[in-house]
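Input structure tokens:
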């Protein structure tokens, strides 16, 4: 008897299955559409939140403890390295999408005037004047402290232009006074900055 009941129930279920599936498919489609819309909205919101902040990065300053002993070739070489790592720093921040890096050209006269009077890492907030001139949210100040050819550290400070709050300040020590060692120092700083979401968001 039990076998016959099962046999008689299966065909009835089979007859009802297509309509059940049709109803279920329409319902599933509506659910999928809703999920897709939610995902699209979430993705759009994430992209908006992830938009990088704007920053002006002033050329690095060289503080050479033995500058009085340098010859002309040494000074030229070191100044070329300053330009090299300044451009490298801006390029890394831009290419890694940590910030939208501003063109400093509109503030070049101001920067020249300020740097002629003092180092930008110790000018009591004058770096933020550059940031305001360029209309950016953040300003970055970099300096290289050279104690000797074997003892060099590269520093990076990132501040909020409006509040003056320090968002990031780190230093890395490098060994060797070469283009490669200086560039490696800059990369190490940018790596640390990238690991600190509070400094970039």
């Amino acid at each position: 008897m039990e076998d016959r009941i099962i046999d008689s129930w299966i065909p009835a279920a089979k007859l009802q299955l297509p309509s059940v599936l049709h109803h279920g498919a329409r319902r599933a489609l509506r659910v999928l559409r809703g999920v897709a819309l939610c995902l699209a909205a979430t993705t759009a919101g994430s992209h908006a939140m992830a938009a990088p902040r704007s920053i002006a990065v002033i050329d690095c300053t060289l503080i050479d403890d033995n500058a009085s002993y340098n010859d002309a070739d040494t000074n030229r070489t070191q100044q070329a390295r300053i330009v090299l790592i300044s451009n490298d720093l801006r390029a890394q921040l831009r290419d890694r999408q940590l910030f939208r890096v501003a063109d400093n050209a509109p503030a070049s006269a101001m920067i020249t005037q300020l740097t002629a009077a003092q180092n930008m890492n110790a000018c009591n907030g004058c770096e933020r004047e550059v940031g305001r001139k360029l209309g950016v949210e953040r300003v970055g100040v970099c300096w290289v402290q050279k104690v000797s050819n074997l003892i060099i550290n590269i520093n990076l400070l990132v501040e909020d232009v409006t509040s003056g709050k320090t968002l990031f300040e780190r230093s890395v020590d490098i060994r060797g006074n070469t283009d490669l060692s200086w560039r490696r120092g800059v990369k190490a700083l940018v790596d640390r900055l990238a690991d600190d979401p509070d400094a970039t968001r």
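The chain has two domains: 1-51, 52-200. The first helix runs from residue 2 to 50.
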